[in-house]
């Protein structure tokens, strides 16, 4: 394991909820209860909460998703959700990485347009699962000689800023045949004193990976402000939690046109020296509509000026349109 990670400063707190605002929080926990090389149980939870003007609160939506994945084959073995959906079982047997989002669109028509928490949990699953492979490399004892392992078909040169052909990661991969990993900074606690600041979720066990998101939406004069926080973290076999990826996106939206006015990404922690270049891609949201943002990012936010995980954070902002309906 290396310590080449881009040294920024991970978040140490969660902002206070603003009167009239709506906050969505989600977590995806990738667990390996039967061993590092066994199946992955992915438990995802989320909630939409409005903070009332008088300080009260209203739960607008909440969901839970549990998926068992044959990790070597990336195949869904079992899936359940609350709230349930009659066609969810159609996802059993599909690839949980490549093509999963298309399978969700076919099995659950209209789910994306709903802007529901359940859809966000499903939509974030493929890359949360992809990142969970970090736990295997981090948790295995060092070998006398590296043993090359095939990398995912979703990972290739110039995929993103971190995977640029001449970059640190690809150079080491070329030299050793092994995808390197980078040890990040300690993960500060971000759960606030406010018990409603985040939805309820279980402590992360050893060798677990957690993807957490927070999306705050509130009115500020004639604009709507948006803050999207994202962190991937890993808990070692010794119980130490470190940050793998972290961004916070700050944006403004014109509520009349429902288009982005401004957008910028703040780096918390990234694994490779080349990764920070991708933060500038968040500025490309300016002028884009909320509707169809997931498809727009997938089509046009590609290559070495972007980041797969920042892209997912930007894609999640499409649901600002649904949350805006509930902002006071």
TrEMBL record:
Pfam entry (one): DUF2889
InterPro entries: DUF2889 (IPR021312)
Record-given protein name: DUF2889 domain-containing protein
Highest rank taxon of the organism: Bacteria
Segments of this protein annotated with the region Disordered: 1-29
Organism: Nocardia aurantia
């Amino acid at each position: 394991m290396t310590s080449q990670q881009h040294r920024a400063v991970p978040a140490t707190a969660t902002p206070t909820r603003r009167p009239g605002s709506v906050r969505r929080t989600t977590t995806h926990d990738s667990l390996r209860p039967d061993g590092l090389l066994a199946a992955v149980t992915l438990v995802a939870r989320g909630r939409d909460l409005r903070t009332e003007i008088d300080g009260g609160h209203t739960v607008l939506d909440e969901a839970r998703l549990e998926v068992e994945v044959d990790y070597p084959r990336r195949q869904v073995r079992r899936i359940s959700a609350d709230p349930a959906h009659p066609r969810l079982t159609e996802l059993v047997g599909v690839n949980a990485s490549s093509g999963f989002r298309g399978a969700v669109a076919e099995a659950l028509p209209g789910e994306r347009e709903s802007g529901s928490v359940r859809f966000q949990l499903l939509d974030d699953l493929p890359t949360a699962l992809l990142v969970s492979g970090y736990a295997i490399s981090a948790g295995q004892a060092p070998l006398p000689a590296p043993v090359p392992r095939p990398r995912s078909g979703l990972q290739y040169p110039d995929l993103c800023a971190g995977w640029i052909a001449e970059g640190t990661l690809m150079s080491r991969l070329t030299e050793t045949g092994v995808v390197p990993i980078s040890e990040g900074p300690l993960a500060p606690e971000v759960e606030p004193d406010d018990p409603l600041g985040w939805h309820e979720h279980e402590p992360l066990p050893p060798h677990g990976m957690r993807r957490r998101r927070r999306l705050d939406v509130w009115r500020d004069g004639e604009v709507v402000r948006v803050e999207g926080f994202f962190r991937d973290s890993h808990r070692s076999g010794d119980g130490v939690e470190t940050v793998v990826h972290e961004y916070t996106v700050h944006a403004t939206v014109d509520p009349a046109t429902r288009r982005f006015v401004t957008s910028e990404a703040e780096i918390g922690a990234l694994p490779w020296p080349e990764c920070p270049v991708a933060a500038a891609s968040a500025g490309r949201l300016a002028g884009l509509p909320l509707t169809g943002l997931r498809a727009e990012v997938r089509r046009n936010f590609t290559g070495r000026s972007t980041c797969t995980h920042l892209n997912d954070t930007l894609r999640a902002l499409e649901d600002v349109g649904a949350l805006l309906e509930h902002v006071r």
